[in-house]
Amino acid sequence: MADELLHEIEALGERLGEARAAVATRIIGQDRVVDLALAAMLSGGHALLMGLPGLGKTRLVETLSTVMGLDGSRIQFTPDLMPSDILGSEILETAPDGSRAFRYVEGPIFAQLLMADEINRASPRTQSALLQAMQEREVTVAGETRRLPAPFHVLATQNPIEQEGTYPLPEAQLDRFLVKIDVAYPDRETERAIVLATTGAAEAEASRVFDGASLIAAQDVVRRMPVGDSVVDMILDLVRACRPDAEDAPESVRRHVSWGPGPRAAQALMLLARAQALLDGRLAPDAGDVARLAQPVLSHRMALSFAARAENVSLAQIIDEVADRVTSVASRAA
What we know:
Radius of gyration: 21 Å
Number of strands: 11
CATH superfamily of the largest domain: P-loop containing nucleotide triphosphate hydrolases
Shape: globular
Number of helices: 15
CATH topology of the largest domain: Rossmann fold
């Protein structure tokens, strides 16, 4: 590893430690959630936060916007939300001399960190307005393509149980999310700390550690981190084994999975494994990073078959089984 890159990784690791500490002043006991969200941003991607109301999803996004020094925007998705409410629209203005001309008014999507709150409450037409933005970092309105600010990240939230009046996200949009982050209930001691920290006379304030330019530089460092051939092979083995039509797919996948992850899942695992290693203060990812990231990366890129639902088999069980099998094979090969 070049000395310059080594120095950059070490310096960035120290700065990320400061960022984690800053986030922890407002987000208590959600280390795994915070790490996955930070890893997604370090990888240049988007994240889907899945959790019940009141678990701090909105607070997390607002805190990350402050700590990472990004221009944030929030959209509350509702059934009557229109694409123009997200992308912006052209309005007809009359000048003092009586002449008229169209002027484009930017929508809230023109931000560096966009919070899409309860994204599944909007209609498919409105949800599709995000597709081009999430993939291409640009939007097309009235026949003209406009670039979005850099960096650009979408952190969307979704309630997993309240499905009345909602529209399931299409598979193409789910695949645009680098990672799905499950936000669970805190344990008793964590909940006690949350209650004490948030019901006093004053709450802790997060401080800025990064800005847009330094986050882009960090993303460049992540992409230059070395990855061993064994880790690359493990990523490919894991993703390909989760496809029911693959030759080396285990019987559980053939029987219980209707469709599996595409190449974008392997790309996500590669980037997130590097980011996780960086967050942990290591110079390169290992097999453990891949195994730990398997569920957040793959679960929203797979679908269960009718047989799986009838037999009460979950995607988590299948992914864990495949990850254990791939890890075991990798260990024997080493």
